[in-house]
Amino acid sequence: MDLDVLLTRIKPGNDAETEAALKEFNELNLTMFQFDPAYEENRKKLCEAVFVVLDKGASISCQVRCLEALRILSRDKNILAPVTTKQNMEILMKKAKLDPETKALGAAADFPVIVEALKCLCNIVFNSPIAQKLSLELNFVNGLCNVLEICMNHNPVNDIRCFDLRLLFLLTLLHTDIRPKLKHELQGLHLLTKTMESVLNIQWAKKYQTVTRENAPAIPMQETDCTIEALKALFNVTLDSYTVRSEIEAHQFRHLVSILRHILLSRGPSELKTEELHSNTINLLSNIPICCMDAITCSTMTEMAASKNEPDMLAIQRILIFMEKRIDKGSGFREGLTPVLSLLTECSRGHRSIRKYLKAVVLPPLKDVSNRPEVGSTLRNKLVRLMTNVDLGVKQTAAEFLFVLCKERVDNLLKYTGYGNAAGLLAARGLLAGGRGERWYSDDEDTDTEEYLQAKPNINLITGHVEEPSPNPLDEMTEEQKDQEAMKLVNMFDKLARENIIKPMAVRSDGTMAPLEEAVRYTEMAEQDSSDSD
Predict the structure, then answer these.
(1) For the chain, what percentages of helix, strand and coil (3-state, to nearest 5) are there?
(2) To 10 degrees, what angle do helices 314-329 and 271-285 make?
(3) Helix H or strand E segment including 205
(4) Which side of the chain, N or C, has fewer Cβ within a 10 Å radius?
(5) Residue-by-residue pLDDT tens, the chain, 534 positions
């Protein structure tokens, strides 16, 4: 399309011609993301022309076409100079109703203008550092919170809320210093939680218990997208929320956890959307102070559990299913798997009932120990395989999770994983000599099966399974041959050590690793101290 001709057709006061020209441009460039550098100046002029029309006033339909064109043009970072002026940003703020003094959104006919203006601002703020600074100067966050407050009293506004929340997420992502202001001064935690509650139309059975039906219909696409944006914004707002400052804040977090539990028990319009929804929910749960996570086990669907006042682990079960799916994917472990593993680890540390449930599912009593712990298709096998993953973060997180399920007792961990798989964690924690972690756990039952007790004497502690006895090659050697093989081995290790390829290490009496010479001196000194005291 000839941009020179297009520019002659866009004039303030001629809405019909402007609208027709921009409609043609928008349809041709709807999916355009890579622009020809040769026409960069023309696209800048088109941006300026569009802003003139918006500033002078035009019909609703003409404004929508102008904003659609601006949204397409704002994908090009190189032409944002005419857009990112204070005057133009104020024009978009006005169209998006981001003035904090705004009391109403206007008639429903105006809603498409608000949505398109928010979409433009999302693109511009994302692509332009200048716009990011202006967003602070023009106090976008206050305006966005004001729009969310107004939307509480309207029904068909989820498209407005969706892009309002997206822009709020972008601002809190790009400007970390506004998060405390949003959380405390603007009551962002409460506002975003109420927004999500309104979007999902949540009803309450009692305190911290939502009304959830087993065969409830899927959440519609628009509501799903809006919820995802709210979850992402809440994630930024709740970062570093390790403790609660008051009873009111504790209530707000428990109220939020109840809604997140509701989402985990719901499904989106497709499998991919459900995974995205649950992924963002789990990420947010990782920010919740652990003392408030008890709300995730409040029973609503399991009547028997409710009648016995027992914790309902259905949401925890959904998190486990999500985790296993991520493991089965076999890629992107650091981003996709570590948040859910960390969440389950902290829940197990902080809540005995959750740990007992996870232990029963992940590490059930051992019966068949004929295979290595990492061989098989059970959740335990998959997690043990992660203990030797090449990604250090994944390896540590998986090992820590299993260690906590074993109540941080080395003997319990070795029983389920074998010494070889657990060596990395034990070395890092200074527990190679055995013992337990620093945290104390209740001494609840941890019984072994008869099958395990019978096989226990024959289990190889390194591999964690019963091995078939193999012939000892030394049995057929003479004493002279044994001495020769031993010297070969010594010489090989000596060469590797002298060339700094390996460094001989030993376990000190406190369970930590140290160079061999240092460990020997440490042991001799300990023995000397012991003899002196005697």
Answers:
(1) 65, 5, 30
(2) 110
(3) strand 204-206
(4) C
(5) 678 888 888 888 888 999 999 999 999 888 888 888 888 888 899 899 999 999 988 899 999 999 999 999 999 888 888 788 999 999 999 999 998 888 888 888 889 999 999 999 999 999 999 999 999 999 999 999 999 999 987 766 889 999 999 999 999 999 999 999 999 999 999 999 999 999 999 999 888 889 888 788 999 999 999 999 999 999 999 998 878 888 999 999 999 999 999 999 999 999 999 999 999 999 999 999 999 999 999 865 444 444 556 778 999 999 999 999 999 987 777 888 999 999 999 999 999 999 999 999 999 998 888 889 999 999 999 999 999 988 899 999 999 999 999 999 998 999 999 988 988 888 888 877 777 777 767 665 567 788 878 888 788 878 888 877 777 777 788 888 888 888 998 899 888 888 888 877 777 766 677 777 776 776 666 666 655 554
Structural tokens at position 363: 């590490």
The two beta strands, 505-507 and 204-206, are unpaired
- Quote the pTM value: 0.86
Residue 217 corresponds to which tokens in the numbers above?
């219909």
Return the closest-CA partner of residue 80 out of 124, 117, 120: 124
Q: Which of 364, 285, 349 is nearest to 323 (CA)?
A: 285
C-alpha pair distances (Å), 6 with each of 15, 71, 270: 14, 17, 41
Nearest-angstrom CA–CA distance, 269 and 519: 61
Helix (H, G, I), strand (E, B) or coil at 359: helix
Number of residues assigned to the chain: 534
Q: Which amino acid is it at 496? A: L
Cα–Cα distance between 388 and 118 in angstroms, integer? 47
Residues 231 and 437: their CA atoms lie apart, in Å, by: 35
DSSP assignment string, 429-484:
HT-TT--B-SS-------PPPHHHHHHGGGEETTTTEE------GGGGS-HHHHHH
Amino acid code (one letter) for 450: E
Kindly report the number of other CB atoms within 10 A of residue 142's CB atom. Answer: 17
| CA gap 516, 261 in Å, rounded | 52
C-alpha distances in Å from residue 532, one per residue of 39, 109, 523, 525, 526 = 88, 92, 14, 10, 10
Q: Residue 132's CB: how many other CB atoms inside 10 A?
A: 18
Q: In 3-state terms, what secondary structure has residue 229?
A: helix
Q: Residue-wise over 493-526: b if at least 16 C-beta within 10 A, else e?
A: eeeeeeeeeeeeeeebeebbbeeeeebeebeeee
Pure H helices in 74-157:
86-95, 111-127, 129-137, 140-151
SS3 assignment, position 505: strand
Q: Which two tokens stand for residue 322?
A: 């999500």
Token digits for 66? Answer: 């102008």
Query: Do residues 115 and 161 touch, judged by C-beta distance below 8 A?
Result: no
Measure the CA–CA gap between 456 and 365, rounded to whole angstroms: 13
